[in-house]
């Protein structure tokens, strides 16, 4: 910045070029700085990040670094000249501006992206859907979806209490698919309860809490709820507890475009046999003729 400040007055279009000793020295220093500039490294998605910021009397700057082989390597730089009013700010305010502006600049890199699951049933998303019309005494359903295979389980419940939540997880998911490594939930009282946290400790499970009033954070379950509820409404059956098993069969048999497979294939190793397959197999049987 000091180098550019010395050169800038000689670039004004309305004034003649006056190359002073100070400007010439600044130009040579800038040329040298470009030749010796620190090379940026390619970002590593799993590497820890560190943001270093600083502020001077007339500018702010920062460096985003990643830890690779026990060495901090720069992957991005940021700098901004202060306005005339900002140069009168206190050191504390200028440093705070540097932190705020740098985080805003590199927010997409600091927040990162959702890590992709690399094993079946290691990471599950869960939530409740309701209040539903009473059906066999049930008014809610707990939904659990495996992030890797997208296999869904729907468990009818009479309430959304912490005890009910824990029982549904223990009785209907864990005996079939084992203990998950990670569970993503919203900030419902049943998931924030001491009982559910204690269950996670026993299972050795890490819980991820989504952002308040931001259903997109648990979008896998939210989209499934819309699909499930709209499919149940289509059926004329008054009891949704008698309808959702067939709906689940269809959902588990539909190809997911993002994984180019059905969740049944990733879970069972093959597609599920549907009623239409039975009808087709019967129609293919040849009718014996008299000879």
Automatic annotation (TrEMBL):
Xref: Gene3D superfamilies: Ribonuclease H-like superfamily/Ribonuclease H
Annotated GO CC locations: DNA polymerase complex
Biological processes per GO annotation: DNA integration
PROSITE patterns in the cross-refs: INTEGRASE (PS50994)
Organism superkingdom: Eukaryota
GO molecular function, one term: RNA-directed DNA polymerase activity
Sorted UniProt keywords: Endonuclease, Hydrolase, Nuclease, Nucleotidyltransferase, RNA-directed DNA polymerase, Transferase
Domain Integrase catalytic: 113-283
InterPro entries, alphabetized: DNA/RNA_pol_sf, Integrase_cat-core, Retrovirus_Pol_polyprotein, RNaseH-like_sf, RNaseH_sf, RT_RNaseH_2
Record protein name field: Gag-Pol polyprotein
Organism of this sequence: Araneus ventricosus (Orbweaver spider)
Phylogenetic classification of the source organism: Eukaryota, Metazoa, Ecdysozoa, Arthropoda, Chelicerata
GN (gene name): gag-pol_41
């Amino acid at each position: 910045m000091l180098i550019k400040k010395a050169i800038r007055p000689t670039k004004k279009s309305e004034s003649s070029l006056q190359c002073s000793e100070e400007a010439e020295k600044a130009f040579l220093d800038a040329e040298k700085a470009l030749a010796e500039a620190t090379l940026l490294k390619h970002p590593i998605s799993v590497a820890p990040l560190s943001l270093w910021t600083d502020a001077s009397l007339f500018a702010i700057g920062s460096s985003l670094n990643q830890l690779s082989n026990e060495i901090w390597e720069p992957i991005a730089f940021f700098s901004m000249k202060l306005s005339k009013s900002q140069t009168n700010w206190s050191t504390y305010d200028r440093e705070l501006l540097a932190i705020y502006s740098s985080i805003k600049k590199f927010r997409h890199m600091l927040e990162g992206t959702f890590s992709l699951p690399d094993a079946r049933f290691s990471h599950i998303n869960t939530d409740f859907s309701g209040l539903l019309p009473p059906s066999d005494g049930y008014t809610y359903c707990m939904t659990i979806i495996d992030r890797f295979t997208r296999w869904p389980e729907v468990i009818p419940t009479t309430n959304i209490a912490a005890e009910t939540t824990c029982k549904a997880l223990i009785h209907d998911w864990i005996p079939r698919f084992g203990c998950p490594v990670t569970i993503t939930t919203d900030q419902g009282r049943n998931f924030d309860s001491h009982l559910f946290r204690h269950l996670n400790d026993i299972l050795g499970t890490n819980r991820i809490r989504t952002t308040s009033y931001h259903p997109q954070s648990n979008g896998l379950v939210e989209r499934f709820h819309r699909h499930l509820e709209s499919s149940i409404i289509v059926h004329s059956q008054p009891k949704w507890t008698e309808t959702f098993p067939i709906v689940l069969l269809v959902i588990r048999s539909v190809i997911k475009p993002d994984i180019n497979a059905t969740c049944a294939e990733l879970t069972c190793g093959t597609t599920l046999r549907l009623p239409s397959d039975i009808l087709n197999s019967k129609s293919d049987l040849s009718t014996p003729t008299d000879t």
